[in-house]
Write a structure and sequence with these properties.
The chain is an alpha/beta fold and about 800 residues long. Helices cover about 40% and strands about 10% of the residues. Helix 16 crosses helix 21, helix 20 runs parallel beside helix 24 and helix 26 runs parallel beside helix 28.
Length: about 800
């Protein structure tokens, strides 16, 4: 089979051509077991040094990544088919949806590389193969394999010639019914859905690309795993594993804290030219021995061993943007951890247990670690910390994300405020009021729990307001000096969060015009959000668990907003709160009036205008200007000044004009100057709401007249809704045409001229160019984009 694959045998091509045209009809209704034998997982993994493995790496794997992984990665991959690794391809598909918001009981977890370690184990968990697992012959491999049949189906039935696909024949909604046919169901699938070959709803791949994949499949789909790290990198892994596995109680507790905050990140070493990414995991085995991973739903669940070891395992999946959270490790970072956690004097007398009511509450489980050390650790890399809320354990989540506004700024309380005895004592005393939903694990009854959490949050806020009224009596210290300035150099001090309906992006810097709302986060707030949405969230949890998590986040959002409002005059606080929560239900209104808004000390800022919020945001921009990242600023663009003016005009559209645009539009502009690379931009649509406290009826809270657009330099977000590709010389015309976009028909005419639609013959060449530019510009941060939200307009 290897020779067939390597030599592109004419005989194989002839056989495949015959089967391509007649196979479906000839074998329809036949019993595959009788024709090709009983199925069983095949050994497909070869040493990387073999020629056939090298061909997989150089020719096949890039095709799968750039044509398949762009839709098949993470939990939201159709049919749970994750094609981002050799092991995932061999694992296959599953008809059950991970995102099932109505389930009464938590589902069994199916996390790649965690919940099963072999293809045979995945078969026991209900996954069906997409590769042939019967007789290994070219005929069987192409006729008894779902992946081969899907490719053949697409070649036989390419996309219709229509510019916009007929909605009655295509469903691009994320919650669409998924067919997920097994090989035994492929005949019926081909008859009922002849146009639904792969890639679904996108142009067929080029003939030579299809030939490469079919030849590989005919040869039995030989693959190889990722190359092991170099000896130099392995030495760094040993150094960090030694650091994280000290024997003292203090070392063990610090390592547990670091692990529970970094487990979702992709760790890499800054000195490497080409980064190799790792995950930090819990293991039953110590360093210098093979990792024996402890697989639990949450990072703080009982490991059921006497001693936990923290180990590095190499990331074996293709890096995709929607889950990629790079975190740099270096000698400087290790020194910083030592400075924060080991240089201060304190004692750890005992290790906390893993009982849910303790382990799910970091204010209790890590009470022996200095609050200041914990807080500084989290804000040192604040973008990564908050990115975990967005990318961590989920790939999408409307229920979780409709709890935040579409664009807002985030600031942090200066950590010096957390380094006083009264603050440490306060958190210790309030630990019982800061319990989180994860203590109930993954099956929760929402109503009773929400009432309980509402009462405890009220008790906490009353105590917090009492402390704040004492600390900031008569406005003392209640100025912009309260806001962390990044120690004069850390650009994590200012962040902008964009919500894109059911996904979101966290970016450094204060992006766009002044937002409607802003957050100021302190230690307890950022810590609780992490344990609510990252460490404690279970995407496989039942309806109650997911609902209570979302409802609890209401409290935390309002607390962050309240911290910001405290810097405004008292009357302005009430006015802004009323604007932010127009039409809020009676229970929420009582909660806001009774608990959130009890802080009554005057601000220490001397306001000079009749628009204090605008003035405050200007003051913060000035204070933090030195450390505020300008990565997404339009001034970074290498285009002519008149082109910049046209670009600036694009984001001036507001209201219903803005509503016509998708959440994210990725734009590639070809500069007039020949020696300048193509320039990348993102047009973000920000949706306005009367309030974001409604659980299930978000549409009724929409304020379409308040929608607006934000244009940034570079790519922002992972899920493009539309692509534009134009020459720099076309920018003035584009700006003029945008002024006339008032209806859906107007918008489609605009796309006719500038868009690369999902039906475009140039779609895949444009996709390759876009991903290549992204990787070229940001080799550490970039990952493959996801096309599951591309619109059909």
């Amino acid at each position: 089979m290897s020779l067939l694959f390597l030599k592109h045998s004419n005989r194989v091509a002839a056989v495949l051509a015959t089967l391509f045209f007649s196979g479906c009809a000839v074998y329809a209704g036949y019993n595959y077991d009788q024709i090709y034998g009983m199925p069983q997982p095949q050994e497909r993994m070869l040493p990387a040094s073999t020629p056939i493995a090298q061909r997989y790496l150089t020719d096949v794997k890039p095709l799968i990544e750039n044509r398949c992984v762009v839709c098949h990665a993470c939990y939201d991959a159709p049919c749970q088919l994750k094609l981002s690794s050799s092991e995932g391809i061999d694992r296959g598909a599953n008809k059950d949806k991970v995102y099932q918001g109505t389930r009464l009981l938590a589902a069994n977890t199916t996390r790649m590389f965690i919940d099963a370690q072999s293809t045979a184990e995945w078969r026991e968990k209900g996954f069906s193969p997409v590769l042939n697992e019967r007789e290994q012959s070219p005929e069987a491999n192409t006729q008894a394999g779902v992946m081969a049949r899907m490719l053949q189906l697409k070649q036989a039935h390419p996309l219709p010639s229509e510019t916009v696909l007929e909605p009655d024949n295509w469903d691009f909604s994320l919650d669409r019914d998924q067919q997920c046919p097994t090989i035994e169901e492929m005949d019926q699938y081909e008859q009922e859905y002849p146009k639904w070959g792969m890639p679904y709803g996108l142009p067929q791949i080029a003939d030579h690309e299809n030939d490469t994949l079919i030849e590989w499949l005919a040869a039995g789909a030989p693959m190889t795993g990722v190359a092991p790290p170099s000896k130099a990198i392995q030495a760094k892994v040993r150094e960090w594993e030694t650091f994280l596995n000290g024997d003292s109680l203090k070392e063990q507790l610090v390592s547990r804290y670091l692990y529970e905050h970094l487990f979702v990140s992709n760790l890499y070493f800054t000195s490497d030219k080409r980064p190799v990414f790792f995950k930090l995991v819990r293991s039953r085995t110590a360093p210098d021995s093979p990792v024996d991973m402890i697989a639990t739903r949450r990072p703080f669940d009982d490991p059921e061993v006497d001693r936990v070891y923290y180990r590095f395992i190499q990331v074996r999946e293709t890096i995709v943007d929607k889950t990629h959270m790079p975190y740099a490790l270096s000698k400087e970072k290790m020194a910083r951890f030592n400075e924060l956690f080991f240089e201060p004097y304190y004692t750890v007398s005992t290790l906390p247990g893993y009982e849910p009511d303790i382990a799910a509450n970091p204010l209790m489980s890590f009470s022996q670690l200095p609050v200041n050390a914990r807080y500084r650790f989290m804000i040192d890399n604040a973008q990564n910390t908050i990115m975990g809320f967005i990318k961590g354990p989920v790939c999408r989540g409307q229920l979780a994300l409709n709890v935040i506004n579409d664009r807002f700024w985030v600031f942090f309380v200066d950590p010096e405020m957390a380094d006083i005895p009264s603050v440490n004592s306060f958190y210790n005393a309030q630990a019982h009021n800061l319990r989180l939903p994860a203590e109930n694990e993954s099956n929760t009854l929402p109503l009773t729990k929400w009432i309980s959490y509402s009462k405890q949050q009220g008790r906490f806020l009353r105590a917090k307001n009492t402390l704040m009224n004492q600390t900031f009596e008569n406005g003392e210290h209640l100025t912009t000096d309260l806001i962390w300035n990044g120690n004069g150099s850390n650009d994590n001090a200012t962040l902008t969060i964009f919500r894109h309906f059911d996904s979101a992006t966290v970016a450094k810097g204060l992006i766009g015009d002044h937002p409607k709302t802003a957050w100021v986060l302190d230690y307890s707030l950022i810590e609780r959000i992490h344990y609510l949405l990252v460490a404690g969230f279970d995407v496989y949890g039942n309806f109650g668990h997911q609902l209570v998590t979302r409802m609890y986040m209401d409290f935390l959002r309002m607390e962050g907003e309240s911290n910001f409002l405290s810097l405004l005059p008292a009357q302005t606080r009430r006015q802004e709160l009323a604007r932010w929560y127009q039409g809020a239900d009676q229970h929420l209104s009582l909660f806001l009036q009774g608990d959130i808004n009890e802080f009554n000390q005057p601000t220490g800022i001397q306001y000079k205008t009749d628009n204090p919020k605008k003035e405050l945001l200007n003051l913060l921009q000035t204070r933090l200007g030195k450390v505020s990242s300008n990565r997404f600023a339009l001034s970074n663009t290498q285009l002519a000044s008149e082109s910049m003016a046209a670009l600036s005009a694009i984001e001036q559209h507001k209201g219903k004009q803005a509503t016509l645009f998708p959440e994210l539009t990725f734009i590639v502009i070809e500069p007039s100057e020949r020696n300048v690379d193509p320039q990348l931009f993102t047009l973000v649509r920000n949706s306005a709401h009367k309030n974001v406290s409604s659980l299930f009826d978000e549409a009724s809270n929409r304020q379409f007249e308040g929608d607006d657009l934000t244009l940034v330099s570079g790519l922002l977000g992972s899920y493009p809704g539309a692509f534009w590709h134009l020459q720099e010389s076309q920018l003035p015309k584009l700006a003029a045409q945008l002024k006339a976009v008032n209806t859906e028909q107007d918008y489609r005419k605009l796309l006719d001229e500038y868009a690369v639609r999902r039906t475009s013959p140039d779609f895949w060449s444009f996709s390759d160019k876009l991903n290549q530019l992204y990787q070229q510009n940001y080799p550490i941060e970039a990952g493959l984009l996801d096309y599951n939200r591309l619109e059909n307009r």
